[in-house]
From TrEMBL:
CDD domains: ribokinase. Gene3D superfamilies: 3.40.1190.20. Residues 282-302 are annotated as: Disordered. K(+) binds at residues 239, 241, 322, 325, 327, 331. Requires a divalent cation, most likely magnesium in vivo, as an electrophilic catalyst to aid phosphoryl group transfer. It is the chelate of the metal and the nucleotide that is the actual substrate. The active site is at residue 245. Signal peptide: none annotated. This is Ribokinase. ATP binds at residues 182, 212-217, 244-245. Keywords: ATP-binding, Carbohydrate metabolism, Cytoplasm, Kinase, Magnesium, Metal-binding, Nucleotide-binding, Potassium, Transferase. Homodimer. Catalyzes the phosphorylation of ribose at O-5 in a reaction requiring ATP and magnesium. The resulting D-ribose-5-phosphate can then be used either for sythesis of nucleotides, histidine, and tryptophan, or as a component of the pentose phosphate pathway. Pathway: Carbohydrate metabolism; D-ribose degradation; D-ribose 5-phosphate from beta-D-ribopyranose: step 2/2.
Length: 343
């Protein structure tokens, strides 16, 4: 199993279950409340670890009870936390409304996550040593750019979830090996309402893109060409919180399990990075390309179509199990559970 670094947020989720959304100015009764460890980064790290991944988590928590609890959870899942800093101030929180239909809405208060404005040497070393780096948008953009630059210079395969959607340098997406976005995120980044065309646009400059469509499955594209629709596994949802993160974590763990790690990425793709950086003309754009890549850097793992299709199938099953249970991390299946379904 190859090593996975997750650079991302750690939150405590405050979850309320209720029959419907209140109208403005209206008070209604909910019927359940729970404190659940969360944050897109932590969720993806736990999902990957439960699928057998060897995971390092990089981020920050506050000096409070929530921070202590989140650190303990990561350790209990076998995730390395040397790169999880403790900072002054509160741990990040997410305030989640779950309707009886299973749909959810979320408000995030960043807390300690906002303090991760740059990487320390230990965090940079963890990314450089990893075979896969997983990124989302719940940390400051400056940190995402730095993390991606370290990965590009080290031969680390990068996986990016653009959630929540934030402004990014023009060359950022061109420096990512795999983009996994839901339908709305893909549309915001590309302007395409058709999922297949959005996936093609997201993958046009480098590697892979997956656009997830909930109970419709997902569209996968490579090098600007849509390969098709992967169907969802039909289930009756209880809570969709964390389903996307379960998909990403399981996907990366499965890719890491079978990645060759020797073929690398084509020179054409690296040249495209450099062209994007030169066109943008900004230092932050240039930082995400391979221009300064050392000769000693290992080649990035090369993912075949068969390997990606297998990983998508695996991740689809993991996500389908998660929506039949309440909570984010609490709902994530183990590798044995997914394997039993696919047997």
């Amino acid at each position: 199993m190859n090593r996975i670094a997750v650079l991302g947020s750690a939150n405590m989720d405050l979850v309320v279950r209720q029959p419907r959304l209140p109208r403005p100015g209206e008070t209604i009764f909910g019927h359940d409340f729970a404190l659940v460890p969360g944050g897109k980064g932590l969720n993806q790290a736990v999902a990957a670890a439960r699928q057998g991944g060897t995971v390092d988590f990089l981020g920050a928590v506050g000096r409070d009870a929530y921070g202590t609890e989140l650190r303990a959870l990561l350790v209990s899942e076998g995730i390395r936390v040397d790169g999880l800093d403790t900072v002054d101030g509160p741990t990040g929180t997410a305030h989640i409304t779950v309707l009886d239909s299973g749909e959810n809405s979320i408000v995030v208060v960043s807390g300690a996550n906002a303090a991760v404005t740059s990487l320390d040497e230990g965090q940079r070393a963890a990314i450089a040593a990893a075979d896969f780096l997983v990124l989302q948008c719940e940390l400051p953009v400056s940190t995402l750019i730095e993390g991606l630059a370290v990965a590009r210079a080290s031969g680390t395969f990068t996986v990016f979830t653009p959630a929540p959607v934030v402004p990014l340098p023009a060359a950022f997406l061109a420096g990512v090996d795999l983009v996994v976005a839901n339908r709305l995120e893909a549309e915001e980044f590309t302007g395409e309402t058709d999922a297949a065309r959005a996936a093609e646009s997201l993958s046009a400059r480098r590697g892979w893109a997956i656009v997830t469509l909930g109970d419709e499955g997902c569209v996968v594209a490579r090098g600007g060409v849509a390969l098709g629709l992967a169907p969802a596994r039909p289930v009756r949802p209880v809570d969709t919180t964390g389903a996307g993160d379960t998909f990403v974590g399981a996907l990366v763990a499965r890719l890491a399990e079978g990645a060759a790690g020797t073929a690398g990425t084509s020179g054409a793709a690296d040249a495209a990075d450099a062209a994007d950086a030169n066109a943008a003309g900004g230092a932050s754009d240039a930082a995400v390309t391979d221009d300064a890549r050392p000769d000693t850097a290992r080649a990035r793992p090369e993912i075949s179509e068969d390997a990606m299709i297998d990983a998508i199938r695996w991740a689809t099953v993991a996500a389908s199990v998660s929506v039949t249970r309440a909570g984010a991390t609490a709902s994530m299946p183990t590798r044995a559970e997914v394997a039993a379904i696919l047997a």
